[in-house]
Amino acid sequence: MSACLILFRGELNCGYALMRRYWLDTVAGMINLLLFLVFIQLGIYSFQPEMSNKLLVISLEKLTIGFFVFSIIGAGISSITSNVSESAMTGVLEQLILSPIGSGWVFFCRALVHLILSSGIYLATIPICMTICRHWFRVDFCKLLFFSIPLWIASCAVGFALGALTLIYKKTQSFTNLIQFLILGLMVLPSYPFNALSWLPISPQAAVLNKVLVEKQVISWNWVLFLYLQSAFYLATGLAVFKEAENYAKQKGILGQY
Amino acid sequence: MLNARTPCGVTSGKDMIRIRNLSKTYSVSGKTVQAVKPFSLDLFPGKVHCFLGPNGAGKTTTVKMLCGLVTPSTGDIIVNRGNLSTSDDRLTFSTGVVLEGARNIYWRLTAFENIDYYCRLHGLRDSRNRAMQCLDQLGLQEYTNTECRFLSRGNQQKVCLACVLALDADFLLLDEPTLGLDIETAHKVMDIILGYKRNGRIIIVTTHDAEFIETVAENIILFRGGKVEPMSSVAEIMTKYGNGDGRFSTAYLRLLKN
After folding, report:
1. ipTM (interface predicted TM)
2. A&B contacts, CB < 8 Å
3. Residue ranges per structural domain of chain A
4. A116, A12 in Cβ contact below 8 A?
């Protein structure tokens, strides 16, 4: 555990240093996110001026939360897949594999650092966006964070499965882009209340976030437990799949190639 | 909990590594290629073992098998009571590996950040001190805060070496460590390797640098078309294949033609 903490600190140092060093990219990323939200909100406002203020706020609220959910999912998946392919391209992947902590945990720590550093940006975007559009709605940030955790963990699990494919097939960016549509599908599936779809990764986590934050529903603690356990199960499965892919790549001698 | 100095099997700098019947067979486009034919070897501590041979002879594959980046098709790598070819975590915790080319480091991080990160990747606590010491040892102080992408090829190679030396590993695997280095730096690297040798470490070097071999290597292992031939020493090669000009490169060329 202490070795994991030491590594986490190392990842945090590097992530922060790169964020500061390449500040233009960081700021541009934030502006990008902000403009995307603002333009969509202004679009809704301009095309449906007759919409009552209450309805408008609800749709903006849904959109903002939906976008936040999509960003969290994207952060979980892409930070793992892009790190695996980038490490293979630059040649450091083999050094990461040699870590006694295990390459899976190295990529998990890196994804966690990415989330910590970028969630501040995501969270700051919501009030900035509301200010610009002059449409206010209440967001319970504590609930948002609490229900985002299992969502992010489940996304990391999918990220590890895709990372495993990257380890073996190397160039998988187009496939990863294709997966975005699958994620959109998972996000809108009616997996709450409990049904067969609730066993899918990401889907119940995204559905519950929507119910809690937009529809202001109260979720039972059993559901909370289910969400956390289900995402932990998928994370363990994702890590196991990644480890198997690593062993396969070692057997074939294709670990460091890209 | 992981312990930096007592990893899986390599418990001190005094252990020897016994390689038994090690081989690697790949399948390339449906064709079976034996990259390394079965060989056995004892690697003694306090010695520099030099892998020699033409390109594609199986040196790098053997280095990768020894550090755990390639799974052997047959054979065992035994240290004390542990069999490293079957153990999951193998030699990795106390093994330092520099793979061919300056591709082992992050170009967007500074020299200091790279070394600090590599120490943390191996769960080492005093990473900052180790990083400063290694920068000092390799004469890289002036580049402490310079991003590696701005460094010359030779200095990038020095940072790669510094990352590995900072681990203070029992087993050092260096794939062409003097490639691209100026003569002064190459000599410095040789001195460092000799220092490591005196501390009772096991060092394996693959190189084509004749001066390096003459100065540092004690135990020569020749690779030819995947076949491994232990040659014992530079003196033996000079005696058997030299033409009296006292140059190792001449003897080595005659050996390869033989």
Report:
1. 0.86
2. 100
3. 2-252
4. yes
